[in-house]
Amino acid sequence: MTQSARDQVPRMLALVPYLRSREGVPVEQVAKDFGVTTAQLVKDLNVLWFCGLPGAVTGEMIDVDMDALEADGVVHIDNAEFLPRPFRLTVPEALSLIVALRTLRESATQTELPTIESALAKLESTAGDGAAASAAVQVHIERADPQVHDTIREALEKGRRLQLAYLVPARDEQTDRMVDPLRLLTAEGWQYLEAWCYRAEDVRLFRLDRIASAEVLTAAVDTHDQVARRDLSAGLFRPGPDHIEAVIDLDEGARWIAESYPIEGSEERSGGRLRIRMRIADPGWLRRLLLSLGGAARLIAPEAMAGEVQRAAQDALAGYEDAPIGPAAPYDRNNDPS
User: Is the separation of the CB atoms in 222 and 180 below 8 Å?
Assistant: First the structure.
């Protein structure tokens, strides 16, 4: 089953009880609630039209009123009584949701906390004795500047555009970004703003602790109907077709690279070295990383870039050797470490 199919099946199973309890809901609202585009939701409804119990024939399938969908932009379904309500949660499913809600609670606003606490109480009651197992999971979220967080919340609630001052570590520079905020999310222990970036002309994730300042603008956000929220089920980093595959040999002292950055594979080599494969979007970032590691890392491929890194290292070494040596500082017994 493809990744898109794995996403679509549970979404459609949840879609039926959702639609049965919301007769005539606007299709845009359904798409927003399920985190997909309107076009994707219409595709789901077209598939749902041919779904039913095993052995069902025409007339026994779920009925979707396509005329109302096309004419009025609302969704009506019928003949779906066999899915009257959401499925019961198993204990593992309930525990997963408990941990997820505890994570969400770490970054929630005061107005959101009562809803989260209420949902947690219900889930912990459902899980019974199994809920005690979730206590062993410690949730820690790196917190951003509260003022930045509150400003982003305000923009989301009011539907306003944001002006950000954002630090890009890969280039060691601060950039100005005008964005339409889409949502706040937490992933891998960090808080992120997902937003449409006018500079990149695409959806981007901004880590909140790297936002130096945020300002709510008077302009309202544009509607980005064709923009789907990012799927984080496979992790934050999604290599693109234009990303470069790099092969790097790491000495023992640089093995932390394999744990700190997303890699696509690793292989033990002689002498305690580890060979890793990773995809990168910015060659400059990789160049700076390798230079900072000195002789503890060696770029194997791509060969052209490996030569560039080697020449840059030689130039840096030559510059260091040619630097004038000033007079020695006078001896100060108070600074003698012995």
Answer: yes
Contacting residues for 116 by C-beta, under 8 A, at least 6 apart: 101, 104, 105, 108
The three-class DSSP label of residue 130 is helix
Residues 6 or more apart whose CB falls under 8 angstroms from that of 32 comprise none
- Digit-coded pLDDT (tens) for 281-292: 778 878 888 888
Question: Tokens 């040999």 sit at which residue?
Answer: 249
Backbone angles phi, psi at 195, to 5 degrees: -150, 155
| 84-121 pLDDT per residue, tens | 555 567 777 777 788 778 777 766 666 777 888 888 88
48: three-class secondary structure by DSSP = helix
Extents of the domains making up the chain: 3-78, 91-134, 146-220, 244-322
User: Contact, 26 vs 59, CB < 8 A?
Assistant: no
Decide: 4 and 11 in contact? Cβ < 8 Å. Answer: no
Q: Is 146-220 the same fold as 3-78? A: no
Fold annotation for 146-220: SH3 type barrels. (2.30.30)
User: Phi and psi of 90, rounded to 5°?
Assistant: -80, 165
CA distance 181 to 157: 10
pTM of the model: 0.49
Chain Cα centroid distance, residue 61: 37
d(CA 36, CA 28): 10
Closest by CA to 288, choosing from 171, 210, 174, 168, is 171
State how far the Cα of 195 lies from the Cα of 218, in Å rounded to an integer.
17
Q: Cis peptide before 324, with omega less than 30 degrees from 0?
A: no
**Residue 174: how many CB atoms within 10 A of its CB?**
13
- Strands 173-187, 77-78: pairing is unpaired
Does the domain made of 3-78 have the CATH classification 1.10.20? no
What is the tens place of the pLDDT at every residue in 300-329? 988 888 888 887 777 766 665 555 544 444
